[in-house]
Amino acid sequence: MAESLDPRLTPARPDIADIRLRGRVTAERFVAAAPRRVVAPAAPLRRAPSAEAGLDTEALLGDAVDLYAEQGGFAFVQLVRDGYVGYLPADCLGPAAPEPTHRVTAVRTFLYPEPDLKRPVRAHLSLGARLVVTGEAGAYFETPGGYVFARHCAPLAQHEPDYAATAERLAGIPYLWGGRTSLGLDCSGLVQLCLDAAGLPCPRDADMQERGLGRALPLALDGLRRGDFVFWRGHVGLMRDSETLIHANGHHMAVAAEPLAGAVARIRENSFGAVTGIRRL
Description:
Layout lengths: L16 E2 L11 E2 L2 E5 L3 E5 L8 E6 L3 E8 L2 E6 L5 E5 L3 E3 L6 E3 L3 E4 L11 E4 L3 E2 L3 E3 L2 E4 L2 E4 L3 E3 L7 H7 L10 E2 L2 E2 L1 H11 L8 H7 L2 E3 L11 E4 L2 E5 L4 E6 L4 E6 H11 L6 E4 L1
Parallel strand pairs: 1-2
Antiparallel strand pairs: 3-6, 3-9, 4-5, 6-7, 7-8, 10-13, 10-17, 11-12, 14-15, 15-16, 18-19, 20-25, 21-22, 21-25, 22-23, 23-24
Helix pairs in contact: 1-2
């Protein structure tokens, strides 16, 4: 019998699977992944090869991707960042090289055709997008796709010291199921984007984060610190301070800060039930 694996993290279909899964899953053929990189500002990763399929997550410009198959304009891939498997639009992918050198640190910035703020923008770029900087032109970085205001970027090795501060900067961003850009975020996408800015690896979904982030604390709401994570079954937020939760949520339809006690009572009554875990990095 085939091994039970999380389908969200397992690059396998009945017709094709990662060669590293030989002996663990059943497939018609096994192939080695082809390295690719996201060349669009953002790319939706869906659970099926259709624009009508549900959005599971998003990949950002510069994200590394393992490609297994292409068909009908969609690519069957696994994201290198967190292992998530699904379908990206094939035209959002390009060669794996060159590797990015910088990342966007502003909540959102623009890509210009020339180093001139009066020019029509080519695209917007989210916090966390990766850039290949090839030169400088005054106040702008030159990249293969255009010019980006340099002070909105930082070298990849430079990280944010306080991931809770990043969450505070994202307050008001609309809620989007599967979103992990500054145009829209879900609860676990917010956590992942903030930890990524701090240079810390993070799984994609709330249940994965509850199992994999830091260390578990007792299920008590007193004694919490800035940066602690509070989990429900299917939801997560992080603490701004000992009494205030920041989370992307469907009640506010936005990233919002609110008293933890009020959030716990409302969530218990209306949606996800009781708190299931508290973790600290």
